[in-house]
Amino acid sequence: MGSKLSPVIIVVLLVVVIVIAVVIFGLFTGKGGFTDTPGENKVSTNEIAKPKLNLEKESDEKDVSSVKIIANATMEDESEISEIVRPDGTIEKGNYTVFEATENKKYTFEVVAANGQKEKATIEVTEIAEISATNPYVPVGFSVINENVEEGFVIEDENGNQYVWVPVESGRLTRGTMLDGKFEDSASSATALVNSVAKYYGFYIGRFEASQYNMDGDVVAASMAGKVPWTNITYLDAFNYATEAGEKFGYEDCFTALINSYAWDTALDWIDKTHNNYSKNTDNGNYDGTVLPTGTTEKDTVNYICDLAGNVREWTTEIYKDSSNNNTGGVKQRVIRGGSANLRRTPSSHIGYPENTSETYWGFRLILYKQ
After folding, report:
1. Dihedral sign computed on CA atoms, order 322, 324, 329, 333
2. How confident is the model over 199-256, as pLDDT tens digits?
3. Closest CA to 258 of 311, 199, 334
4. Which phi and psi angles does 236 have, rounded to 5°?
5. Residue 103, burial from CB neighbour count under 10 angstroms (0-12, 13-18, 19+)
6. Helices (H), the chain
7. Cβ count within 10 A of residue 79
8. 3-state secondary structure 125-178
9. Which residue intervals of the chain bear CATH 3.90.1580?
10. How far is the C-alpha of 165 from the C-alpha of 350, rounded, in Å?
11. Residue-wise pLDDT tens digits, 84-122
């Protein structure tokens, strides 16, 4: 006669089986257990809210000068977003910012939450037209006055200084005295211009001969219309005033300098393409004996550049090394270009004078370039 399990033992066995089943279910699902409150989802204490960062371009238009990137950060509670760090390192408080990109490259933004969590996002800009001889860069703070490159692309700053773009398709500047051992142009600004043009395929020449501009009691070299040219100035002073002008006017991404032989000869070569033999004749300049305000002589306005032929002769950084006919006492001679109201000379003419001398009919001109 077989033995029978008592009802008590059967109940105990059933309870054991149920407990084992509950434990196994909990191990595999991460749920269950005797400490859980029915209907309550447990959140891990290791989960910390993180911000998300979305980047998009305002427009996908091609061949533009700049692209606006919109950065928008999100969290379950947007008030928890502290700031967005822009690609240039500047910080925008809150969850939204707009950044203007001016170069084709990748731009990275970072959002920072109040809880210390951070998230980065990157977007690539490819829509900006590449700078070239026919697509000049426009420095920050300047506006375009005339956009036709062939006849003269003119820009103006907020004070009225104007410059004309000289396109250089080859990226190589011209210097007419390159093979003449009597001449040399080793100024640091001349080297900087050569490097700039190799990269940007052009430079800006002052539309007008330099004049004096009063800025809060400080005299600054300017390139403005209708002004008395700055004369009776030595090369040394002209060089310093020209170099300082960009900083005084607050230019952010470009530099000013005294015009050099590369800039002068390259500008003349460009002008000669549309104004036949301009550089080698005396038909255009003001040679009437009286120095006139800048830009007055209409026939000496070519490609929007004024008074290269006459009005006042202009210092350049070029050195003239043959002093056999001059007693300079060891002082360097710098080359003066063009003619003046009292001396009929071609725009391409050049002659050396001691750099510490000055004259009523001698002035200078600025150039503007990007490094």
Report:
1. negative
2. 999 999 999 999 999 999 999 999 999 999 999 999 999 999 999 999 999 999 999 9
3. 334
4. -60, -45
5. exposed
6. 7-29, 188-200, 235-248, 261-272
7. 9
8. CCCECCCECCECCCCCCCEEEECCCCCCEEEECCCCCEEEEEECCCCCCCCCCC
9. 143-369
10. 23
11. 999 999 999 999 999 999 889 999 999 999 999 999 999
> What is the distance, to the nearest Å, from the Cα of residue 271 to the centroid of all Cα atoms in its chain?
26
Distance, CA of 332 to CA of 312 (rounded, Å): 21
DSSP 259: -
Asked if 56 contacts 69 with a C-beta cutoff of 8 angstroms, the reply is: yes
- Torsion angle, alpha carbons of 273, 279, 282, 285, to 10: 90
Distance CA 240, CA 248 (A): 12
Name residue, tokens 């707009």.
98
Backbone angles phi, psi at 363, to 5 degrees: -140, -150
Q: CATH 2.60.40 in the chain: give the residue spans.
A: 52-124
The single residue listed with the structure tokens 């809880």 is 115
Q: Rounded to the nearest 5°, which phi and psi values hold at 268?
A: -65, -40
Which residues fall within 8 angstroms of residue 274, CB to CB, at 6 or more apart? 150, 151, 302, 303
Q: Which two tokens stand for residue 149?
A: 């490159």
The Cα 186–Cα 281 span in angstroms is: 28
Q: Which fold has domain 52-124?
A: Immunoglobulin-like (2.60.40)
3-state secondary structure of 312: coil
- Integer Cα distance of 320 and 177 in angstroms: 10
What is the reported pTM? Answer: 0.74
Closest CA to 291 of 308, 305, 306, 312: 312
* Cβ–Cβ < 8 Å for 257, 367: yes
How is domain 143-369 classified at the architecture level of CATH? Alpha-Beta Complex (3.90)
**N-term to C-term CA, the chain:** 108
342 vs 319: CA distance, rounded Å: 24
Contact 20, 28 (CB under 8 A): no
Which of these, 364, 91, 138, lies nearest to 245 by C-alpha position?
364
- What span, in angstroms and rounded, lies between the C-alpha atoms of 331 and 136? 39
Round to whole Å and give the CA distance between 104 and 112.
26
